[in-house]
Amino acid sequence: MALALALPGLRADAAPRAPVVLAAASLQEALSDAADAFTRTRHPRPVLAFAATSALARQIEAGAPADLFVAADAEWMDYLAARRLVRPPARVIATNRLVLIAPKARPQRLAISPGFALARAIGAGRLAMADQDAVPAGRYARAALSSLGVWPSVQGRVTRSGSVREALMLVSRGEVPLGVVYATDALAQPGVMVVGEFPASSHPAIVYPAAIPTRSTNPEGEAFRRFLVSPAGQAILRRHGFGRP
């Protein structure tokens, strides 16, 4: 009788727990599909939460529970690593590109090159970008525009969004004439068109490092990270426009 009573409890304790995954907003569609595929390998479906990398890093610093953190740049991952809030090493799962977009209903033609006429193309409107002081997409965008010599002409006419997805939505709704987002964001939003792609040399490499928060005790976080760098996981990321690590 004692054994019969104990066995159900043992089975419950042995059941894997769904990992909590905090990930950059630009990964929303790709990681949602990856979570579905991961579940088909007899793992619990990860609980996904998406926001700006900066906001998620601050949440982890404040003690938010998480079993995997996927950032949109190395800087915020280094921030957590310096405070011993993630376990080394962080592993890059994907890369991305930076593009200039316009509303599909109001297309524009503009060649991205040193000194290009971005301010004139904006006209009386504003340029949508993620926050250049905190959000990775905003920092990449400012670096690219500075490298091309056009940042001084537009820095006073920028709408600072809390995440790259907020900037994307401003453009898709036609509230601004142009915006700077990741190539994968433009692919995920049918309401925008890509005006041009920024040269890779104009900004730091756009990488997505993934690491296990120090407080996590759930091995499913590492299992999901391994899935993301597996051939199956990489195929899903590539289908959503992400580059190889």
What would your notes on this structure say?
- With 245 residues, the chain is of the alpha/beta class.
- The chain has 11 helices and 10 strands.
- The protein has helices spanning 2-14, 28-39, 53-61, 74-82, 118-122, 136-147, 151-154, 164-172, 183-188, 220-229, 231-239, and strands spanning 20-24, 47-51, 68-70, 86-96, 98-103, 127-130, 158-161, 178-182, 192-197, 206-213.
- The strands form 2 sheets. It has a 5-stranded mixed sheet with strand order 2-1-3-10-4, sandwiched between helices.
- Helix 2 (28-39) links the parallel strand 1 (20-24) and strand 2 (47-51).
- The radius of gyration is 20 Å and the shape is elongated.
